Amino acid sequence: FMFTGCGGGEELAPTATEGEQVQQEEPAAEPEEEKLPEELSGFAGTKTGAFYSQFADGKMYMEYETEIEGQQMTLISATNGDKTYSESRMGDVTAGVSIIDGDVMYTIDHNSKMVVKMPLQADAQTIATDIMEESDVNMDEMKSGKRTIDGKEYDTEEWHMEDGASIMCFDGDQLAYIIGEADGTEAIMKIVKVSKDVDESLFEIPDDYQMMEM
């Protein structure tokens, strides 16, 4: 289309010829700023996330002490993928052993040499046997704070999940305690040992024990 100016009678250049489209150059997009690892994931930037990142391959061994019904207990837990091992001890005496393999749980009594096999109950695993992942928590509900245990102050990160809350207590970057809260009760677990090495024999069911299925 041709346009005529009012004053000088000059013909103005066409805005577009027939069959053509005017193409405008878009400004070049600015290159994205490279994000640091801690910016990619809020969970990874927490003390809890850093602690559990050690066990990205799904293997974790933990020993901790707690009080159950007035008795001091040493608890051992090990995780390897969908297998978990739990043992409770009073002194040097084993009070109970359970092994979870997929959707099956085995309860082992070494004294009677008996194994009870049963379907896994939904609440069978405790927080101590789980490897916490980002999908398990809500970053918006995480609370940082302080907690004094036995006269010493620790940095805390409180995480809420479906079945309760876990308060992770850190001495610097070292996990010192896990406090589990559920149904208005609180259990304090003192971390004694943590390792990425898991003995595979822990998950073996003794083949010379009597098996009972429920």
Topology:
Blueprint: E1 3-4, E2 11-12, H1 37-40, H2 47-52, E3 59-68, E4 71-80, E5 83-90, E6 93-101, E7 104-109, E8 114-119, E9 143-149, E10 152-161, E11 164-171, E12 174-182, E13 185-195, E14 210-213
Parallel strand pairs: 8-14
Antiparallel strand pairs: 1-2, 3-4, 3-13, 4-5, 5-6, 6-7, 7-8, 9-10, 10-11, 11-12, 12-13
List the main descriptive attributes of the protein structure presented here.
single chain, 214 residues, mainly beta, twelve-stranded mixed β-sheet, two-stranded antiparallel ribbon, 2 helices, 14 strands, globular, disordered N terminus
Describe this protein's structure.
The protein has helices spanning 37-40, 47-52; strands at residues 3-4, 11-12, 59-68, 71-80, 83-90, 93-101, 104-109, 114-119, 143-149, 152-161, 164-171, 174-182, 185-195, 210-213. The protein is mostly beta strands. The strands form two sheets. Strands 9-10-11-12-13-3-4-5-6-7-8-14 form a twelve-stranded mixed beta sheet. A two-stranded antiparallel ribbon has the order 1-2. Strand 6 (93-101) and strand 7 (104-109) form a beta hairpin. The relative contact order is 0.16.
Secondary-structure element sequence?
EEHHEEEEEEEEEEEE
Low-confidence stretches: 1-17, 34-40, 125-129
Mean pLDDT: 80
Helical content (DSSP H or I, runs of 4+): under 10%
The strand order across the widest sheet is 9-10-11-12-13-3-4-5-6-7-8-14
The number of helical runs is 2
Based on helices, strands and strand pairing, what is the structural class? mainly beta
Please compute the radius of gyration using only Cα atoms.
Answer: 30 Å
Looking at the structure, what is the overall shape? globular
Distance between the termini: 88 Å
Largest sheet: 12 strands, mixed
Q: What is the strand content?
A: over 45%
Number of strand elements: 14
